[in-house]
Amino acid sequence: MGATSTNDLLAIPPLHWSRAYFTGNSKCDVVDNNLAEAFNGWIVDARCHPIISMLEEIRKMVMQRLHVKRSWVNKWKTNIAPRAQQKLEKNMELSVQCRLVWNGDGGFEVTHGENQHTVNLNTMQCTCREWELTGIPCCHAICAMYHDSKEPQTFISEWYTKERYLESYKHVLQPVRGKKFWPKREDDPIGPPKLKVMPGRPKKKRRKDKDEPVKQKYGKLSSAGFKITCSNCKQVGHRKNKCTNPGQKETSWYWHLYRPENWRTNIKCECYQLCPLFLSNDMKTAIPEFYLFYPGLPSEQVVTRAAKRKIGASISQYNHASKGPGLKWRGKQAVTTRQLQQQQSDQRRQSKRRTSQNPLDTQSSQTDANANN
User: Fold this and answer.
1) In angstroms, rounded to a whole number, what is the distance separating the alpha carbons of residues 291 and 63?
2) Where is this region: Disordered (predicted)?
3) Which of 189, 78, 61, 80 has its CA nearest to residue 136?
4) Rounded distance, CA 269 to CA 261, Å?
């Protein structure tokens, strides 16, 4: 409990929250609000309705509950409430472990384990205060009752009897007609308030206090205390996205394809054995030769529908700068059909651009077309 919560609690008189200061008038030792929480959980479905519908639903539930509680009294085996009877029987079993010394009057000195209390049957009190607060005899008092050959049931408070229980549920709710027959105010009708839409997404979770612990989400753990290994350079202490070592990424053909210095040059690439460039006297831009003919690395191949089959799939011969997010086919990474269409469109535009830049290729293609005709 934080310091703020402690100060707020101390501002309330201890008579209202500490069992040590409770009086014995109410015959109840409850220090929490479970009764209100149980009622809120009972009407949780009705609370989702509008105000009038919610009140009508709660009224029907309470009207039925009063009848159920009155009918439940007929099933009691004794004149005492069942839960009070269970607690009394539990104290009767514990009374066997007690040892007492009688003073010859109305006082008893009862020893229970390491504790020792005094019991007075004339005033119906015990120094443990359980009998005074709850109205049910404690194990120390029951031990004294057995010594005087008295029945413990006769010392239970009257608030646990059948007559008191029926008296608390004697009030009933009368049935009500539907909304159609309700009286209406014609002079000044009350309409619903205007709906004001607040900015942002509405919150559904409860607002927690500052000192309240945050619950960890399922499946997500903190990386504190674990050794992080880079998948690129295999070193410990960082991840791949923050890796500064070249590793194997820069030596691949895929990396040379997108290096800017390999696209604008008049000489062959320095990595000629790995990345030969297709050069032309009439072309200002050098195009990697494997970009035109190489089908792609195994990890860069994509899945597309076969051209001459109605069903099935095949590995296309196109390289993709952006692969699908986790899409795989037969253990190989793949992309979506939309990405494949975009890649084909980019290749067509690049082909037209190269044709417009190289008039020799255009003239030769027209000559070949005339020869075929």
Assistant:
1) 80
2) 182-216, 317-373
3) 80
4) 9
Tell me the one-letter amino acid at 302. Answer: V
List Cα–Cα distances, 307 to 291, 304, 312, 328, in angstroms: 22, 9, 10, 20
Q: 289-327: buried (b, 16+ CB within 10 Å) or exposed (e) per residue?
A: ebbeeeebeeebbbbbeeeeeeeeeebbebbbeebbeee
Rounded-to-integer distance, Cα 142 and Cα 61, Å: 41
Torsion 286-290-296-297 (CA) sign: negative
Cα gap 93→115, rounded to integer Å = 17
Q: Collapsing DSSP states into helix, strand and coil, what is residue 116?
A: strand
| pLDDT tens-place string over residues 30-82 | 888 888 899 999 999 999 899 989 999 999 999 999 999 999 998 898 899 99
* CB-count exposure of residue 63 (10 Å: 0-12, 13-18, 19+): middle
Per the listing, tokens 């059948």 go with 162
Every domain of the chain and the residues it spans: 21-174, 240-294, 295-358
DSSP letter (8 states) at residue 250: T
Q: Return d(Cα 135, Cα 87) in angstroms, integer.
A: 11
> What length does the chain have?
373
Q: What is the pTM of this model?
A: 0.48
Whether the per-residue pLDDT at 154 is higher than 60: the answer is: yes
285 pLDDT band, cuts 50/70/90, is: very low
Q: Are 248 and 232 in contact (CB under 8 A)?
A: yes
